[in-house]
Design brief:
The complex is a heterodimer.
Chain A (H helix, E strand, L loop, with lengths): L1 H21 L7 H13 L1 H23 L2 H8 L2 H12 L6 H18 L2
Helix pairs in contact in A: 1-3, 1-5, 4-6, 5-6
Chain B lengths: L2 H51 L4 H10 L1 H21 L4 H8 L1 H12 L7 H37 L1
Classes of the chains: A mainly alpha, B mainly alpha.
């Protein structure tokens, strides 16, 4: 379960780092978008993000066969706190206290929704 | 230059700075809304079809799944949603995007209620309310952050 939350937020963090390296997408020109897509698929951080998402998916399937659904789904909501923590520590994003309150509310809400 | 002259000089800069920040938030929201709806619609397609197929052996299930257009549409929608999510991350903070896309949980509940006729418990609706409140706070924090950034630019111009 901890692995899922860790892998999921690691996926988010790497994906963000990759996309920030690719640079802001500020065009709708199809040819330019294609070039951005190619650059993205060659970006190591982006690929690491995809890898962690795959790890998340398969460990999620494994956990589903081991544990009770009513435990797994609410626990997954921890990602909503773990990803911003990763963003703060690894991506050096500044997160105001108001935003933290919002993030915690979202996390609690997702946990409530996922109780079967 | 007198004081009023400086004040007049500053105003257009002020407007430009905050407009840029506000436009960035608008762009983020404009990209994330279709991402969320594509994700939710994708999930409806997938779960509609999977329930129809029912529980079977994994491989048999996979074989039948590949023949079904609903599953292909569902998967395509999920891929579109992922691309839009990644695009938003190319300019926006992760700590903004992650809570913002949690609206997908709300949309999923509403879609499940409406299209799949699932019974939604009171606890779930309470969760929906908490998520919505959380998202409002996060969006507000982004607007304040933009305002603060503008202020900082002005202050550095004063020096």
């Amino acid at each position: 379960m901890a692995l899922i939350v860790l892998a999921d937020s690691a996926g988010d963090v790497f994906l963000t780092r990759g996309m920030k390296q690719v640079g802001e997408i500020a065009t709708l020109n199809p040819r330019a978008l294609l070039a951005i897509g190619k650059k993205t698929l060659l970006n190591r951080s982006f690929l690491a993000g995809i890898f962690f998402m795959a790890v998340t998916f398969f460990s999620f399937l494994t956990v589903l066969s081991l544990a009770d659904l009513s435990l797994v789904f609410p626990a997954k909501s921890m990602v909503y706190v773990a990803s911003p923590l990763g963003a703060k520590w690894l991506l050096k994003e500044t997160i105001s206290s108001e935003r933290w309150v919002g993030i915690v509310l979202v996390c609690l809400g997702v946990a409530l929704v996922s109780i079967p | 230059m007198n004081d009023r002259g400086i004040a007049r000089d500053r105003r257009p800069e002020n407007r430009k700075g905050s407009t840029a920040a506000r436009n960035s938030l608008k762009k983020t929201i404009a990209v994330l809304i279709p991402a969320v709806f594509a994700q939710a619609a994708g999930n409806v397609f997938l779960s509609m079809k999977m329930k129809e197929i029912g529980s079977a052996h994994f491989l048999a299930l996979l074989g039948r799944a590949l023949e079904s257009p609903a599953l292909w549409i569902g998967t395509a929608l999920l891929i579109v949603s992922f691309i839009l999510f990644a695009a938003a991350l190319s300019w926006a903070d992760l700590s903004l995007v992650v809570p913002a896309v949690s609206i997908e949980v709300v949309v999923n509940v509403i879609f499940a209620d409406y299209f799949l006729q699932e019974v939604i418990s009171l606890t779930r609706w309470m969760g929906v309310v908490l998520i919505s409140a959380g998202i409002i706070l996060v969006l507000r924090s982004e607007r304040q952050k933009a305002a603060r950034a503008t202020e900082e630019i002005l202050r550095s111009e004063d020096r």
